[in-house]
Amino acid sequence: MNRKRVLIIVAIAVLLIAAFITRGFGLIAKADEGPLTLYGNVDIREVDLGFRVGGRINSIEVEEGAAVTAGQLLATLDRSSLESRARQADAQIAAAEANLTKLRNGNRAQEIEQARARYAASQIAVAEADRDYRRREPLVGPGAISRDIWDQTVATRDRARAQAAEARAALSLLQAGARREDVAAAAAQVDAAIAQRSGTQVDLTDTQLFSQTDGIVVTRVNEPGAIVQPGATILTLAINAPMRVRAYIGEPDLTRINPGMAVEVSVDGNPRTYNGTIGYISPQAEFTPKSVETQDLRTDLVYRLRIIVTNPDDALRQGQPVTVKIPTARATQAR
Fold first, then answer.
1. How many CB atoms sit inside 10 A of residue 230's CB?
2. Among the CATH numbers 1.25.40.10, 2.40.30.170, 3.40.50.10860, 2.30.30.100, which is that of 30-45+242-326?
3. Across all residues in the chain, what is the average pLDDT?
4. Are 92 and 192 in contact (CB under 8 A)?
5. d(C-alpha 283, C-alpha 293), whole Å
6. Mean pLDDT for the stretch of residues 46-72
7. What is the DSSP letter of 212?
8. What is the chain's alpha carbon radius of gyration, rounded to the nearest angstrom?
9. How far is CA 20 from the centre of its chain?
10. Which fold has domain 46-78+207-238?
11. What band does 277 get if pLDDT is binned at 50, 70 and 90?
12. pLDDT of residue 275
């Protein structure tokens, strides 16, 4: 009897040791733990919309709670001051282009003829002044003419020669036309005026605020008549598509999932289950956020997941707590 009891005890011990050894080397897998359950929230995705330029708000086309689409006009600014600047810029372009055309075409033939006539008249005046100078010069020594008359004769000759030189230089300038440097400077003035007009046109375009994406108007921060600075928030828009869920997974379960894996998302008070797909797994660990309502993970390092969820009935709301189940999660192996 004692021998039989000993044999039973030995057999049980052998089985326990064998089980321990095989499990210790990972030869026996743990039982499938079933669907993996995670917790998180619907991502809050909001964008503050405003004008790039400042001014007085002319209109706001949407109310809070309105659904908007990409490209929809949301608000406008008063354009009167910018339109005045645009007209002024157009006038500056016209003046700069006229000046450039004048320099490139050179001086008119009539202007050159007038300068040539002035030069010819100055030459005649020089000839007359030289003749008087030569005629009176011998009379100075004997005292046949007064010193004042002689001084006046010399001054008249010098003045005539200076006026002739000036007339000749003016004629040469008209014949030569504008310098290349002047033409280049005039062309630069035209470019500057065009650039200023383009900038004004961009400002005019930016007096209209369009939605860049589909979404819901969450807040009207300002109202028509308000004067706002560039970049001031006019509307806050919630982006609902695609709907994203942020969830967290502990390191022991990290090997059970991979991007592209199908998930099921549910919320309290709603019997419906929403389909989703794991789109992103963070490569860096972080401490569990306070929003994760599970004591097992609160003090652990976890990895953030981004899950893309279909929301056909628009029942999911941003910031809403959700439960994520991954039915196809792989079972973990014993270590």
1. 12
2. 2.40.30.170
3. 83
4. no
5. 23
6. 95
7. S
8. 47
9. 64
10. OB fold (Dihydrolipoamide Acetyltransferase, E2P) (2.40.50)
11. very high
12. 93
